[in-house]
TrEMBL record:
Originating species: Massilia consociata
Family (UniProt): Belongs to the precorrin methyltransferase family.
EC number of the protein: 2.1.1.107
SUPFAM superfamilies assigned: Tetrapyrrole methylase
UniProt keywords, alphabetically: Methyltransferase, Porphyrin biosynthesis, S-adenosyl-L-methionine, Transferase
PANTHER family reported in the protein's UniProt record: S-ADENOSYL-L-METHIONINE-DEPENDENT UROPORPHYRINOGEN III METHYLTRANSFERASE, CHLOROPLASTIC (PTHR45790:SF3), SIROHEME SYNTHASE-RELATED (PTHR45790)
One example GO MF annotation: uroporphyrin-III C-methyltransferase activity
Underlying gene: cobA
GO biological process: methylation
CDD domains: SUMT
Keyword Methyltransferase in record: yes
Tetrapyrrole methylase domain ranges (all copies): 6-213
Protein name: uroporphyrinogen-III C-methyltransferase
Pathway field: Porphyrin-containing compound metabolism; siroheme biosynthesis; precorrin-2 from uroporphyrinogen III: step 1/1
Amino acid sequence: MAALGKVYLVGAGPGAADLITVRGARLLAQADVVLYDALVTPEMLALCRQAELISVGKRSGQRSTAQTLINQQLVECAGRFRHVVRLKGGDPMLFGRADEELRALEAAGIEVEVVPGITTAVAAAAAAKQPLTKRGVARSVAFFTSSTAPDHPEHPALPETDTLVQYMGGREAAATAERLLAEGRRPNLPVVVVENCTRADERIMRLTLADLARGLEPGHGPVLVMLGEALAKREHQS
C-alpha cells in the first residue's frame, strides 16, 4: 500500500497575498495540490503555480461544493499526492469548518497539520485603524456568525461582550442591530462595516446602530460588521 501524503490546513488570511504567514507561503510553494476556497485571490494562487489547483469554493447564497465532498476530496488527494494544502480564507480554526475536515482526515489515518492565518476581524480593525479593545471602554470581544449547520436551529441570542464582531454579516447585520436596540443599546452606538477587507476594492463604512438596523446595501464581497463603544471615531481621526 502506497504511503499516504500529509495534509496542511493553511489559513490564507483576509485576502491580500502578502498577509499570509511565511510558513503558509512556504507550504504553498511546496504543494503538489491545493484545494482552495472561493475567497482566495488569484494573487494568492500565484504562490503555488507548480501545484494542481482544485476549487472547492463555498459562498453564501451561491452554488458551492458540499462539505462532505470536500472531505472526500482531501482524503483522495492524500492518497495521490505527498503534499496536500487545503487553503482557507482567514484562519482555519475560526468559522472555517476545520473540525469536519480534521475528523475525516484523522479517521482515514492521514497526517494533518494546521497553519494559522490572520482572521478577518483583526485585519478589519487594522484597516479601519480602530482597536477592538480600549482601556477603560472595552476589554472583551466576541466573534460570531448567524450562520448555522443545516437542520440546526438559529441562535438568536447575542454574545454578552463589549465589542461584537459579526462574520458574514451582510444580510444578517440588520437583525443583529434590531436585537441590540431591543436590548436597550443606544441608537448611536458606533458601527464599522468592512467589505472586501485588505483587497484592492476594500470599502470601510462608519455607521450607527440605528443606521445598521435599516439594513446594508447589497455588497460585492465578504462583509464584516464591528459594533461597540470601542469603535467610536477618535478626535482628529481621518
